[in-house]
Amino acid sequence: MKTTDIIRRAGRNLRQAKVRTLLTALAISVGAFTITLALAAGTGGKEYTDSLIKNNGDARSLSVYAKSTSSESTSGPQKYGKDTANTSPDLLSDSDIKKIKAIDGVADVTPMYNVSATYMVGPNGEKYDTSLSIKVDQTGVELAAGKLSNNQPLAGSVIIADDYVKPLGYTSAQEAIGKTITLRVDKANIPGVPTIGKNMTFQIAAVSKKSDTVLHYQDAVWLSPADGKTVYEYQTPANAANQYYGVTARVKDSADPATVQAAIKDKGYEVFSLQDVQQVLFTFVNVVMGGAAGFGALAILASIFGIINTQYISVLERTQQIGLMKALGARRRDIGRLFRYEAAWVGFLGGLIGTGLALLVGFVNPWIADQLNLEKGTNLLIFNPLYSVLLIAGLMVIAVLAGYFPSRKAAKLDPIEALRTE
Amino acid sequence: MIKVENVVKRYGKKKNIFTALDDVSVEIPTGEITAIIGKSGSGKSTLMHVMSGLDRATSGQVLIDDADINKMKAKDVDRFRAHQMSFVFQSFFVQGNETCYDNVSLPLETAEISASKRRAMIESALEAVELSDKKRTKAKDLSGGQKQRLAIARAIVNRPKILFADEPTGNLDTTTGQKVEKLLFGYARTTNANLIIVTHDPDLAAKCDRRIYIKDGKIEKVEGGKQ
């Protein structure tokens, strides 16, 4: 028999058993639905983490630390002695900075200075606590007002948090731009000696604001790297200077961050990049997606038995039809194909229903974003049409495989037995 | 020309062995209408099955125009049947959920005739059995006589050379039975096809050119014959 004729007959046979076909298809659709949603959530999750990463870091900025020697060598704490007196091996020095700077592809190395301000004060003269940071990397900043080049303030200017605008005495973020802020910086406290400090005044270049995609947003005043260095040198006692917990290496635009990261690692440093974080987050998203898809796969596995059962019943019910077809010259192969195509139709229908329902769930994207307090327009469910097509095709293949034994039973049926009337 | 030579058909194994056909030889010339007559269990249905290739003889030859279908591959027997043979059964075996048109279409599909050619063939077959107006009717909505006429349309649509009819009037009243008889005989006479009727109805058998009586798997006697 011709394939088109068999497909047509298969479709017609299914229409004649509408309820049974629909129920079997619905069983498959549960799995298809779950898998489609899992894939959509995976795609959406990856896209969301991608935007998170872009807003929280700068791929060309590598964090370099000294390799922790204590943890690698003998276990347990080291005995106190002359060698280990003052300089901890876990800190970086200026010579390390020079070494890193010499590596091919490194544009610039900035130590991670630790700075603090005792208070801040604006035109209204009120003093407020503030946290002080240095904007060393070029991570994107969501701005309420003002402008930045390379996402960093220039020397002599600062970025301030939106929440600081009013306490400082400005009516709006826009008004604060170009105005000043004064910070009180004190030298490190030495017991018994009165605290020495000075006031430093900066121009407000920009006002930053919170965003859903920025993790760990902290109200602060951000200094430029140059000003940061000045403050650090003023605050830190001379004997503690030239020791850094870590440094930030900027990668040249022409170089690949991954190669530079490997090169620095080769020199004996611990290097972390945003790509590492991205990898971790992606792994997490993949695990969640895989878990959900696994449940879907289980549902499909269960529905396979449904297909087999339905097809067996169908063969029993249609013994006479099969016998007649054989008597009229239909080959064993034709009968087998008829039942396999019926199974394929059921798989197709189940896949279609499942993915269709999943697509409908996509309409609640705005609600999900609302519930999770995400920014408007964030889609956590992103459907890839290719996945849906592959899924439906896959289900058809699975259904055909499930229909193998029933179809073989049908093909083997003895027409004489089937057409016996007694 | 159908030639059955020394056909033996046995069922079962060893102790339970049962000989359904015991060294049967018969010759049916082309265009002859033949009746196979016997009681139930006599082996008349088995003979039909063996002649049509639905069943395989344990030994012997079944020659149809010099081709031994008992030695053909299953695939080739199926093709042979699709193109050269057809059946009418006592219980009609029409597909109730399908339209008359689709019922008649089935043997053309198994013979792999293209859809465009099928239409005219199906329509003329339905016309021959006076069911043209029921083309789109589901077969389950037909009366018994109409169902058997539909079965005849299905049997003759592909112009078979050999038409087997297994108790074709067994489930019908006399009037409808006569109509069915007329259709079957009419087809065989106009196309010079072999009509082989399996029956235990002596009246029906009497109308045939040749009568083969079967008893206990053996040919008891043969009556008539054109030559």
In a few lines, what is going on in this structure?
The complex is a heterodimer of chains A (422) and B (227). Chain A is α+β, with helices and mostly antiparallel strands and 422 residues long.
List keywords for this structure.
heterodimer, A: 422 residues, alpha+beta, 2 domains, eight-stranded mixed beta sheet, four-stranded antiparallel beta sheet, 15 helices, 51% helix, 14% strand, elongated, B: 227 residues, alpha/beta, Rossmann fold, six-stranded mixed beta sheet, 7 helices, 10 strands
Structural account:
The complex is a heterodimer of chains A (422) and B (227). With 422 residues, chain A is an alpha+beta fold. Chain A has 2 domains: 3-55 and 279-418, no CATH class; 61-272, no CATH class. In chain A, 51% of the residues lie in helices and 14% in strands. In chain A, strands 3, 4, 5, 6, 7, 8, 9 and 10 form an 8-stranded mixed sheet that branches. A 4-stranded antiparallel sheet of chain A has the order 2-11-1-12. In chain A, strand 3 and strand 4 form a beta hairpin. In chain A, helix 2 packs antiparallel against helix 9 (274-317) and helix 11 (332-361) runs antiparallel to helix 14 (404-412). The longest helix of chain A is centred in the last third of the chain and has 44 residues, at 274-317. The radius of gyration of chain A is 34 Å and the shape is elongated. Chain B has 227 residues and is of the alpha/beta class. Chain B has a single domain, classed as P-loop containing nucleotide triphosphate hydrolases (Rossmann fold), CATH 3.40.50.300. In chain B, 36% of the residues lie in helices and 27% in strands. Chain B is built from 7 helices and 10 strands. A 6-stranded mixed sheet of chain B has the order 6-7-8-3-9-10, sandwiched between helices. In chain B, strands 2-1-4-5 form a 4-stranded antiparallel sheet, with helices on one face. In chain B, helix 3 (100-110) crosses helix 4 (115-128). The mean pLDDT of chain B is 92. The interface between A and B is medium-sized, with 24 and 31 residues.
